[in-house]
Specification:
Strand content: under 5%
CATH architecture of the largest domain: Up-down Bundle
Mean pLDDT: 84
Order of helices and strands: HHHHHHHHHHHHHHHH
Shape: elongated
CATH class of the largest domain: Mainly Alpha
Number of strands: 0
Helix content: over 70%
Low-confidence stretches: 249-254
Distance between the termini: 62 Å
CATH topology of the largest domain: Rhopdopsin 7-helix transmembrane proteins
Radius of gyration: 26 Å
């Protein structure tokens, strides 16, 4: 008969396997691939950590093979989860968001996760070459002790990004068409906040030498990892559903033929690229209706259902591209960044800064300096 500990280990293993499957499916979804890829990485890293606990608790590590595997296989990769949460929420709220070179600095801290495995691999190679006696260094104990104290910056990083993400969500302007997504990202982030609190309650006694062994002897890591299993199932199911529910292109209205959709899209593009209507800082949807002689209903439907954008998002996209082009051409040396933005159709510095960062994941100044 299974003991309670063995039962928990099986639950953790099944949760990890479910996480691997869910990650694979999310990587393959063709709808809103940016957000789904980020969510897939989050679930994959959580699943690897859960598998690591099963690996430690359920598999005997006294053979040389398993000692080496445990020393060089990086299963505990936590530092990127905080930034991934932030960028997932950002990509979910704004499908134009992408993790570019300027954002990669958020993930440099992963070196804290990889360092002990890199060092262990180096020492193993030294042992194989005869430069170090294989029994002079306890690799697995080193990794255990290292992970014990690096959990502090891990928790700080996760919590900091959760707080930043919640602030970003609070600033997001909710529209009728994205209320469901807004509610999802709030629940998503709050779920991680709850986990962060649970982790802190376990972490404080864990890093205190006097209480550490007593804590692990009494409850082990299960108070932390069981909530992670819940997160794996919850994130996977809801993330998968929201991908299809919100980001899948809406079924075309029977009154709109493919020709109407294509012609309207082309007319809108010409109005922006050729006639440069976006340069008008007070441009309204009604102005575009008069210019293209296409009804407001058709334009709105093409923008919202077939291009997946609001009118302001569509127009501001051209303004941002025009700004980037003029900045790269370097012909406006007598103008400030704000001056160029105004020349490109923006009528507010705050709106320009917010829109530019939302669409490029960097500030105008960072774009200029790259």
């Amino acid at each position: 008969m299974l003991s309670f500990k063995q039962f928990l280990n099986i639950i953790i293993l099944l949760g990890a396997i479910q996480g691997f499957i869910t990650s694979f499916l999310l990587f393959r979804i063709k709808l809103n691939t940016k957000a789904n890829t980020l969510l897939a990485w989050i679930i994959l890293f959580i699943s690897l950590a859960c598998f690591n606990l099963y690996f430690i608790e359920a598999i005997t590590l006294n053979t040389t093979f398993w000692v080496i595997i445990g020393a060089v296989l990086p299963l505990v990769i936590i530092m990127p989860i905080g930034p991934l949460i932030y960028f997932y929420v950002k990509a979910t709220l704004n499908t134009n968001t992408a993790v570019n070179k300027g954002n990669r600095k958020h993930f440099y801290s992963v070196i804290l996760d990889l360092f002990p495995y890199i060092l262990s691999l180096f020492l193993i190679i030294c042992s194989i070459l005869g430069l170090l006696e294989s029994n002079t260094f306890d690799w697995n104990n080193f990794i255990y002790q290292y992970n014990k104290y690096v959990d502090i910056p891990r928790w700080i990083s996760l919590t900091a990004y959760i707080i930043i993400t919640l602030k970003m969500i609070a600033r997001f302007k909710v529209q009728n068409r994205n209320k469901e997504v807004y509610n999802w990202v709030r629940q998503f982030t709050m779920g991680f906040l709850i986990f962060s609190i649970i982790w802190l309650l376990h972490l404080i006694p864990y890093i205190i030498p006097y209480f550490s062994n007593k804590l692990l002897g009494a409850v082990g890591w299960y108070p932390v990892y069981m909530p992670l299993i819940v997160l794996i199932y919850w994130l996977g199911i809801n993330g998968y559903i929201i991908s299809f529910k919100h980001f899948k292109t809406a079924k075309k209205d029977k009154n709109l033929s493919n020709k109407i959709i294509v012609d309207t899209s082309k007319a809108l593009e010409n109005a922006m690229l050729i006639d440069e209507l976006f340069l008008n800082p007070n441009l309204k949807l009604n102005d575009v209706v008069k210019h293209t002689k296409i009804s407001q209903k058709i334009i709105s439907e093409v923008l919202n259902q077939h291009l997946g954008k609001s009118f302001n998002e569509y127009v501001n996209g051209f303004r941002v591209e025009a700004f980037k082009k003029r900045l790269l051409e370097n012909k406006d040396k007598n103008l400030t960044i704000t001056g160029i933005a105004f020349e490109c159709g923006f009528n507010s510095q705050a709106t320009f800064q917010r829109t530019f960062k939302s669409m490029t994941n960097m500030t105008p100044k960072e774009f200029q300096q790259q």
